[in-house]
Design brief:
Elements: H1 2-56, H2 63-69, E1 75-79, E2 85-89, E3 97-100, E4 106-111, H3 114-117, H4 120-161, H5 177-228, H6 232-259, E5 267-270, H7 271-289, E6 294-298, E7 303-306, H8 308-325, E8 330-337, E9 340-346, H9 354-357, H10 372-383, E10 387-392, E11 397-403
Helix pairs in contact: 1-4, 4-5, 5-6, 7-8, 8-10
């Protein structure tokens, strides 16, 4: 802001100097030229009076008489009543200044053309010096004004950057009504954001605590069912239910960490192995029950630095989306590309309307093709340093890019 204010003020001052100074210099130059002409005219009139007096006294007028009344460095041309021309004086060059007097005798005073401009340099020097002084004064005033304006604005910008972090502090009055009103609005916004964050943290903490109790009770009941199960099939179902309860506990803990601004444990994993294991354990049976084919392919081991729970949740969202909104065979492909690992989920259904593709991951937008789940999945992936996108609309192809 300081730089812009100084540059704009300097430019305005320069334009003002050019608009006013140049005409002022031109007028001064013209006035000097007129002063020279007026001086020559007075000289011609004085010479006319002196020579006319000499003629009245009956004396002759010769070149030496004309030279005597000519000014220093000037020349006079006189036309006597008899018509004789007499010229005398200094050499004034080939293009002199010529001024005719208004006396009884016709007298023309001549001066070197340099006299017309001999004081012009002083005029322009004065104009230049005054212009520089005006520009310097304008810049000085701009510096003072910039300090007065930019200081509060810079403090306001720093304060705006701290809004929502809880350390914005109280606003210091700046003396500028507009800035103080903005600061007051930031104070109010900071207070509202702090209250919203407090409520969200409390909700997250309360929800996590309230869910853990029933989940612990559910797990205890499942363990009892496993103990009293009469056959191997019943015990296997109870064990699978316990695994789902443990998985739900892990999801709750992972989402709680994300809500508090902390990521989960990031480690180097084999993305292909984790994907194949999760799809086989949690999704193959669901697709088979729906009469849908589900396949998983991978180009060998695919290393990635990402939390396991993030990968599982992203797969859950994409496969659930394919199961409920897609159609036909669904394929999950895992591959390494450059320094990233990629999970591609493709189904054979009608796909996504291209008009809705741009807003598909909007948490507040739903067409039945996605919804909140896709928004959450993208947020999870981006927190890990990757991205989730719709690679193709018809049929739907989703691609999760994870850091390798």
């Amino acid at each position: 802001m300081r730089r812009r204010l100084l540059s704009s003020t300097g430019l305005i001052a320069l334009v003002a100097v050019l608009v006013l100074g140049v005409p002022l210099g031109a007028v001064g130059t013209r006035l000097l030229a007129q002063r020279v002409e007026q001086r020559l005219e007075r000289e011609a009139d004085d010479a006319s009076v002196a020579l006319e007096r000499r003629l009245h006294e009956g004396l002759a007028v010769g070149p030496e008489d004309v030279a005597r009344v000519a000014g220093a460095g000037h020349r006079l041309e006189v036309v006597l009543p008899s018509g004789r021309r007499v010229a005398a004086g200094a050499d004034v060059g080939t293009d002199p200044i010529r001024v005719r007097g208004s006396g009884a005798l016709t007298v023309v005073a001549l001066a070197p053309s340099s006299e017309r401009v001999e004081d012009t340099g002083g005029v322009w020097l004065a104009v230049i010096l005054l212009s520089l002084a005006a520009v310097a004064a304008a810049i000085g005033l701009a510096l003072l004004q910039a300090r007065k304006l930019a200081g509060p604005m810079e403090r306001l910008a720093r304060r705006a950057g701290r809004v929502g972090r809880g350390d914005a502090g109280a606003a210091v009055p700046s003396g500028l009504a507009e800035v103080d009103r903005i600061a007051a609005a930031l104070d109010a916004a900071d207070a509202r954001i702090a209250e919203l964050l407090r409520r969200e943290r409390e909700f997250t903490s309360n929800a996590s605590h309230q869910l853990r109790g029933p989940l612990t009770g559910l797990r205890m009941r499942l363990e009892e069912l496993q103990e009293i199960a009469g056959g191997a099939a019943e015990r296997a179902e109870a064990a699978a239910a316990l695994e789902q309860a443990d998985r739900l506990q892990a999801v709750i803990e992972h989402l709680e960490l994300l809500a508090r601004g902390r990521g989960g444990d990031v480690e180097r994993i084999d993305l292909a192995a984790l994907t194949a294991e999760h799809v086989a354990r949690d999704w193959s049976a669901r697709f088979a029950a729906a009469g849908r084919e589900l396949s998983t392919t991978a180009d060998g081991a695919v290393p990635a630095e990402v939390g396991e729970e993030t990968v599982r949740q992203v797969l859950d969202v994409l496969l659930d989306n394919a199961l409920h909104h897609g159609g036909g065979a669904t394929a999950v492909a895992v591959a390494a590309r450059g320094a990233t690992g990629r999970i591609v989920v493709r189904d054979s259904g009608p796909g996504v309307d291209p008009e809705h593709a741009a807003r598909l991951f909007d948490r507040h937008f739903s067409t039945g093709d996605g919804g909140v789940g896709l928004a959450v999945a993208r947020e999870l992936v981006r927190r890990e340093g990757g991205d989730l996108r719709l690679a193709a609309a018809r049929p739907a192809v989703f691609e999760a890019v994870l850091p390798g």
